[in-house]
Amino acid sequence: xxxxxxxxxxxxxxxxxxxxxxxxxxxxxxxxxxxxxxxxxxxxxxxxxxxxxxxxxxxxxxxxxxxxxxxxxxxxxxxxxxxxxxxxxxxxxxxxxxxxxxxxxxxxxxxxxxxxxxxxxxxxxxxxxxxxxxxxxxxxxxxxxxxxxxxxxxxxxxxxxxxxxxxxxxxxxxxxxxxxxxxxxxxxxxxxxxxxxxxxxxxxxxxxxxxxxxxxxxxxxxxxxxxxxxxxxxxxxxxxxxxxxxxxxxxxxxxxxxxxxxxxxx
Length: 266
Description:
Layout: H1 4-13, E1 18-24, H2 33-43, E2 47-51, H3 62-72, H4 78-89, E3 97-101, H5 103-109, H6 111-121, E4 125-128, H7 137-145, E5 149-151, E6 153-154, H8 160-169, E7 174-177, H9 190-200, E8 208-211, H10 217-224, E9 229-232, H11 234-242, H12 248-264
Parallel strand pairs: 1-2, 1-9, 2-3, 3-4, 4-5, 6-7, 7-8, 8-9
Helix pairs in contact: 2-4, 2-12, 4-6, 5-6, 10-12, 11-12
């Protein structure tokens, strides 16, 4: 079992909403990735998403696209990302780390090799944006056999059949994309999110995190009324962009702490 299920169980027992935070590995510089991971935990993040840089990140808006471009200038690849996880685990054995990326780097590495390396590094799961659940039951089973969760995206346009398939093969939690579009775009309609989550929960019994449009404490607080976790990525990348490199970790910690305080006030 990964660290994800116990984390959500502890959150539920404390009547708390989870906070899932995202950065792109290697951005703004490789030596800052692990300090940024620790800063997010210090600020109150419950689960970390670590983006694997990719040249064609189709689900990402311009903010995370820029982060990928910056990381790729340092030639950050999947094995480098796993090394960041290994370094993080030297002093943090409890916070779940989920790798988020695309199929191409996994296929290039080989799925068995990826699973073995991710498990050895101390990762807890992966979100592979372009792996449809209908085509990766074997991969999901191999992940679970090695203590890793395969987490799927669900969208406002997901059909009941797709939701049922995600319920069948997914584990850890499900990630609901709160709007039609890319990361960091648009404004969330909380009432619509609540309605869609109710329909999803008819099939999916996993905790549900909501992301793709949460930019501030007010939005996070509103989403926390209906979700098991809120997911924030683009806004954190903007904090990194706005801060001098030597101040980036503290800027991220302070921003995450503000979101944590808003969630705890729900």
